[in-house]
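Quick note —
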Amino acid sequence: MNLLNRVVATVAALATSVFALLGCDQQKIDTLEEGLSTEIDVRKAFGEPETIWPEPDGSRTFEYPRQPMGHRNYMITIGSDGVMTALRQVLTPHVFEQIQPGMTQEQVRRMLGKPAQRMTYQLKQETDWDWNWIDPPNQEMEFTVTFGANGTVKKSGSRIKLPQGDR
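Predicted structure written out below.
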């Protein structure tokens, strides 16, 4: 098998994996209903969360990131009574608009979930966090938050995602 055929086969396999992941998530989401599903139902469908964020009202938010291969991150809120109150896909423009200069890394992580990648630029004293997302119907995008030396947001924005070698 020549190099081109191997590259094509690898890309096809990755695409199949991503589409399978999307289909699996939708099947999981379809089994859950806000106000009725319990924490046990959520864990049965999605597994153990990457992070559990405690909320001021006693509820907890379960983080289910799909980065770096996927284009979504889910936040599922479980009320203090153990019932699911919200299931959100958070990598969307209306959530990105809420990222403001001065926010901390923890505040951003709680809103967007785990980033696809983190890159630190020592000379600039900046760190970029990137999330992959889809601008409907199918434009691959990348949302970047730049943190300054003090660990707070300096700027943020989206751009069309370029292939790895074209950056």
